[in-house]
Amino acid sequence: MLVTVNALPLAVGVLLSCSTTLGEISVYGRLTLGMAWALAQLVVLVGGTWWYERRATSSCEPAPATTAASPSVGGTW
């Protein structure tokens, strides 16, 4: 999932780096389209990594019913 989320921004970043005229378009003051896209790509990468890390650590925690102190599901005979 992390690679999928970052593939599109990376592809657009490669296209922008191939064309200097597109990357030099002014967005706001001295901020160009190339710099804005690089910043957006960084935000997507950091946000996606944070989400993936959070999700990976939460899925490794044991379920409440599978701890050693919990009673067995079938009970004792």
Describe the global form: rod-shaped
Which assembly state applies to the chains in this document? single chain
Main β-sheet, spatial strand arrangement: 1-2
The SSE order reads HHEEH
Rounded average pLDDT: 77
Derived from helix and strand composition plus strand pairing, the structural class reads mainly alpha
> How many DSSP-defined strands?
2
Biggest β-sheet: count, sense, barrel? 2 strands, antiparallel
Q: How much helicity do the residues have?
A: 55-70%
Cα-atom Rg, whole angstroms?
23 Å
First-to-last CA distance: 46 Å
Strand content: 5-15%
Low-confidence segments: none
The number of distinct helices, counting runs of at least 4 residues, comes to 3
Describe the structure.
This protein has 77 residues and is mainly alpha-helical. The chain contains 3 helices and 2 strands, in the order ααββα. It has a two-stranded antiparallel sheet. β1 (26-28) and β2 (31-32) form a beta hairpin. α1 runs antiparallel to α3 (33-59). The chain is rod-shaped, with a radius of gyration of 23 Å. The termini are far apart.
Topology:
Blueprint lengths: L1 H17 L1 H4 L2 E3 L2 E2 H27 L18
Antiparallel strand pairs: 1-2
Write out key terms for the chains shown:
77 residues; mainly alpha; two-stranded antiparallel sheet
